[in-house]
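ok so heres the complex, two chains, lmk if somethin looks off
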Amino acid sequence: MAVTVKTFGSASEAAGALSSDRTARYLGGGTLVMRALNEGDVSISTVVRAQDQALTRIDASGPRITLGAGVTFARVLAERDLGFLHAPARSIGGPAVRNMGTVGGNLFAPDPYGDFTVALLALDATVAVQGGFGSRDIPIEEFLQARERQAGTLVLSVSCTRPASSEAFRYRKIARIKPKGGSVITLAAHLPISGGRIAGARIALGSMAPTQIRARAAERALEGRSLDAATIAAAASAATEGTSPSDNALGSAWYRREIVGVHLRRLLSGQE
Amino acid sequence: MSKVPLQFRHNGRDVAIFVDGGTNLLVALRELIGDMTPKFGCGQGGCGTCSVLIDGELHLSCLTLAETVAGRSIETLDGMKQGPNLHPLQRAFADQFAAQCGYCTPGMLMAAKALLDRNPSPSRDEVIEAISGNICRCTGYEPIINAILAAAGGRVSA
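and the predicted structre for the whole thing:
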């Protein structure tokens, strides 16, 4: 079925068109929307685009970085100042998908995709969105919890604070195929250290629930402690709490529950 | 539904077509331009056989909205040979038995060209990474990797 394509010069015009039409979808890199159209998704009758340079801007100079929603993973990888995001960016697709897929689109990628969003969730990112009535900033966790209702809003950018060191932010995607493959599970950990103890631990998991989630019980096991073997064991044994993984071709829910603690232990103890 | 006029460069030649809204670039290339070298595999971004270069960058044509390439330069496998001569990558694929059924070959060659255009002497790991978005069910990949390395190293019979 043919769809109507509406291209706007500014993000705000595109946001207006999105919020006023329930059958409209925003086209970023195409890896989600074009796939849906190729599969004959008749719920989409309008495709909205914006050619707004603000959507492809990267601000990586300061302690807080901002990525326009239309920034591709290839551009993240080309940016030396974004080294802490290279592992999640590299874990997505092959080169063609990384040339197309965007940071903003990844927020909407359903399980087993959306690996970059796992990293952003651990980093407590803020999502700037524009609806019909202006723009606002939403914590990423809140954004993900209401993701199904975000279709009428346009994501403008995501921002987060740069981790203090490479040790403070860790990421791992477990896939069956190397170097490319869908996620069996994806893990990210932000472990700020203050006076030798973890202060503000955030653990994020992908493919362990319908959207990316935080492993709050594991975070509690880490909080205020030093990252020693006993603490790591406690966090690993709490990793499944609050998760609701499902079966898919890449792995069963049972298997995901079995391995998430193992991989969290390896991630926290710095093992390959 | 009205058709939309679209102009772009296809293997160095300007083309003008009319597309339906929502048409992907793969359909535009195959059905409207008549370039059958990019193949339809999955339509989901999982197989890579529809790979083309857009302004020199590797993209999946099945996930590219045709209207977004207005004014841009598209390269497909059809434009790879140099006059009557095969491109060194094509020669290497033939010499190294890198094609069996051949369905993945157009995408593999475009992914390999995207690599060598930027990195003329890649390592084996860089070759593996460059074709990681392209699935081959016949060769087991080794002949393809060897062919790309041979083309990069100039070890190809002309």
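quick notes: Chain B has a mean pLDDT of 95. thats all i got rn
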